[in-house]
Amino acid sequence: HGMLQIENLAQSFANDSVQFDSIFASDLSRARITAEGICRLQPPKEDGERVSPILTPDLRERDFGSWEGVRWQSTSAQSTDTSTSPRSSRRCASREIAEKETTVSMRRRSLSFLHSHFLPLLFDDPTSKRNFAIVAHGIILRVLWNCLVELFDPVCVSLLPGIAAWEGGPAALLAPSWSNTGFMELSI
Asked: Is the pTM of this model over 0.70?
């Protein structure tokens, strides 16, 4: 199902003649495979070169520490056997929470991505229109969005008609979330 979603997303970009100058992606497999799928249907650049993903660990999803890879279950579906649950381990619960990556660390990675990859290309030639794609994961994308809009005066951030910011506040307070192969279009 996921591979069909990638194909449909890539085909949608191709059908709309969306050509990316650069595609940045998390180096984790799901984002990398999605970025590679988008690249397959991109036309060659003017110089004949094909776009390929620029992989970076800065776009990785939040590290959940000892909770990484643990399957979430609803309360009604949980069994009474908690011997395999991280909560039942002998480690202190506060230590498990401390192992989870902090928001500060995710902001640091997001700012690193913006300053080392995205902004130099964005401002390289301010007179030309360039298209970039960022393929990553939901939590880090929200942190990245927050870091990006902080670079602009909130009055200068606007949304297209029909898109509402969080609790009707300014557009800079938009709190986006992404589904699998969901995307946001942003014009700067």
From this structure: yes
